[in-house]
Amino acid sequence: MARVLIYGGTGGIGLATARALRARDVALHLVARDAAGLERAASDLGETTVTAGDVTDPSLFALATAAAGEALAGLVFAVGSITLKPIGRLSAQEIEADFRLNALGAFLAVQAAAPALKAGAGESTSGIVLFSTVAAAQGFSAHVSVAMAKGAVEGLALSLAAELSPSVRVNVIAPSLTRTNLARPLTANETVANGIAGMHAVPRLGTPEDAGALAAFLVSDDAGWITGQVIGVDGGRSSVRTKG
Fold this sequence. Notes:
single chain; seven-stranded parallel β-sheet; 2-(S)-hydroxypropyl-CoM dehydrogenase
């Protein structure tokens, strides 16, 4: 059975994607830094193999792809960062770290997996899902580093959608603020969280399941005519204003 390879498989959105795919009876290969978390996830999910490693290590991608199998049904790169600082407080090292984690990591993941994704397409297609952020297109203050890195992910995805067609589809999910461990510094204070939630047409913060359900759909054959898209899972934040 061809597997879907998920980077960030123990994180909030990555694990929610894994659960949504297992509900579709899809076999998985999860990659994350948390070896113990990977083993727990594999035990809970079933039909799941794992590779422990850090996506900032370039050697990880060949190892993970080989362990996932010669044919892949899909690839999900659910890895991200939230570096929120005004430009005067940002260092070149922080910018580089965000780019390496988000954009270079996504590139290396796809580069390593492309032959297996083409092999797994069969008579249909395989699917790649990368993650951006609503901030890449909206221009939020203090989001320079993450918006730059995720903007590069969107450019990467559009180029790959052309290059890897017709056998491999490539799409991007751009969430707004979602209740994950990564976002906890912003969501732990309920007054702050409620204020941000109120900026959305659907006035709540996202959940990992919101993005995970869409990622599982985009990987599947149900999305067989969808490629080259950046799709907001953002409560309307990217396009809808209810006040002013």
